[in-house]
């Protein structure tokens, strides 16, 4: 089912709003958390919307959402709370460590505030989205709905690593910003200035690109070293991650997730939706739009705002008001701009085979419906002095999106495989994956994969990315790379293109080829790596597209 608009807009009779009040609570271990309270200046009680933020409650995440007064005027009590160690709240901020207990305590407290009806919903994006999952794992009785946006599901695989590779640009940028906030709290003006400047222009040209001087000098203010030196999943990651706590989450809490095609944490959100869609008794929905971590404000055209999406959901699940339409999954088509409603997210089951004459990095290889008759070998040399750059996609938040990557695809260190032009339109909607038979002349190497649409005018616009770091001894026969999901209707004359390379910098560190950890690797340590990409009957590399796709 397809719609031009993703929501029904309801009119509201606006209520007067009281001036904000500063209110405080104590957590179960005695830490004071401060909040601003906004509520209608009218008789009656109202559902509570709780926004818990690490970046200062006075901003109220207005980079993504309407000011809390907007919600209060539409019949909600809104509470914006500084998390532990943030804003004016007491304590020390350590990412994700206290959000389960603090969040549950805050839900119970918010339900008792003046004007509250006793029902609480949480909202917020990024870290504030993950905090909702963690609070939900404590099963607070008053919690009726969560609406995590651009949040993820697992700290290890959605925030710190992807395919075994450290999320360099994303993780470094966030660490620098949180470190700058920590320096500000203790009035370290020099540290605050240096860290803020580094966050604005990432110091990835440092002698140790993954552990630049600014983060070495001010390591006391940030979690960065803990993440950088812990490259495998395990108990320490599970202690922070909603995914590991899912069995404790109640089934009567409504869930609306809002994600973006260019959001670094989308893959985890899809996994979370599948989990809740299969088990939740309350309504569950996933909306994925043409957005990155910056949210709808960065999107062109008539994309909805987080506020219009959320308000319709809150009115439905908290007040029983308003109509509704569409399926549990609502996806924005990046080619046509239309919205599609699906009952589920299709799996990656349709197959295109990689085929080549051995010159995929010169004249290009092919994506074919039938298995090629002959074996082929494409050789790609990764030169660490000139790594293949990140172009669009999801992994560098400040540069996310769909820029033309035709020039990058012409590089000799990029192998491309292209389908024949389409005779009729083709809709892709669902998960994408790659199984590639690959080996290298180094103990460790990376494989970056990009699926794009090649338009008749020669533009090559990304649809989805995937990345994998192969450590010594890892299986590569084949190497499976999860490439996130996509939604696009390709016009006749367009084609699909798969691009493979040995780097994607600065989204991920340049692999030195030695097996050394990123935080220990100097620029001078990196060596050239030769990748051997196989295709054909004995080593069948293949691209897997959403079920029902036929090129």
From TrEMBL:
Keyword Hydrolase: yes
Highest taxon listed in the record's lineage: Bacteria
Protein name: CocE/NonD family hydrolase
A GO MF term: dipeptidyl-peptidase activity
Domain Xaa-Pro dipeptidyl-peptidase C-terminal, residue spans: 311-544
Pfam (any one): PepX_C
Keyword Phosphoprotein annotated: no
UniProt keyword terms in alphabetical order: Hydrolase, Plasmid
Gene3D superfamilies (alphabetical): alpha-amino acid ester hydrolase ( Helical cap domain), alpha/beta hydrolase, Galactose-binding domain-like
Listed InterPro entries: AB_hydrolase_fold, CocE/Ser_esterase, Galactose-bd-like_sf, Xaa-Pro-like_dom, Xaa-Pro_dipept_C
